[in-house]
Amino acid sequence: PMTPPRGHSFHLELDNAGQRHVRNFRVRVQLECTCGKEQQGEKVLCFLHQPEEELRRNQEPSLLDTLCSGCYLDVHKTARWFCQLVRAIWPALPQSHSWHFMLLPSRRSCQFKVTNSGESFRIEMLFGVRRGDSDIFVSSQSRDALTPSTTWPETYAVAEMKFFERIARQAPPDSLHLRCLQLFTYVQLGFGFSTYTMKTIVMHLLNAIPVSQWRRRHFLQRLGDINVDLRCCLEEKRLNHFVIGNERFPQEISLPLDIASAEPANLFHHLAQDAAAHSQAMSEYQDL
User: Fold this and answer.
1) C-alpha to C-alpha distance for 80 and 67, rounded to whole angstroms
2) What is the pLDDT at residue 18?
3) CATH classification number, 156-287, choose in 3.90.25, 1.10.10, 1.10.1410, 3.30.70
4) Which fold has domain 8-154?
5) Mean pLDDT score, 163-169
6) Where are the domains of the chain?
7) Are residues 27 and 140 in contact, defined by beta-carbon separation less than 8 angstroms?
8) How far apart are alpha carbons 33 and 49 in whole angstroms?
9) Model pTM?
10) Are strands 152-155 and 24-31 parallel, antiparallel or unpaired?
């Protein structure tokens, strides 16, 4: 995650309060007074109160001048700056002697490929800003190619990862909860159900069924539960988000108050609004 450098602060602003099913933010960058402060024994120039000419001579530009559009953190500028940094640093790394490095085109992340004589890896680095001290972040990643460069969608990936880590600590050694998720996700490839839909259903089941009942001997029963839950959610045109508004979400995973107390978000809201989409989803379920 990104943290504001000295003399700056980040302030997250909800960008679409009227859109219930999408939560986008903008990250407003504000200059902070650093008068009288020192860094490594040297006096720090204040972006707010020092003359611009002195700042240009003696200090690096502020974040507002480099990575922002107006006063908002810009995803495209951030990704471009980071890619330039990685490209400049790579020749100094020991790995550069045995691996070929190639930057890949991306406007909202830093993507690159490293290759040697026998292996090739594609790496993508995303950028995020943490919401306070919680496990919720806003991220540079977006599904929509037309997302404005100052828009940062909210992401629940870290909170969900911590949920799976919690399950892993409690689960018996022969637990197959991840195998259930992997198998069902693989089976539905080519149908209209997203990986996130299957992940959400499995997370709800893990929160409801004791981890002791996800062992090898329960494998077929749990697969049946996933199948039944998917059918019920499709019939009801409702699949509640696992994090937003979930009263049974583990309290040790930190959520902002507006997330914890929100109305449960319906991941199948589009099926409730579009009869043709619902009919197609039911047909694909029957094929599955």
Assistant:
1) 9
2) 47
3) 1.10.1410
4) Beta Polymerase; domain 2 (3.30.460)
5) 97
6) 8-154, 156-287
7) no
8) 7
9) 0.86
10) antiparallel
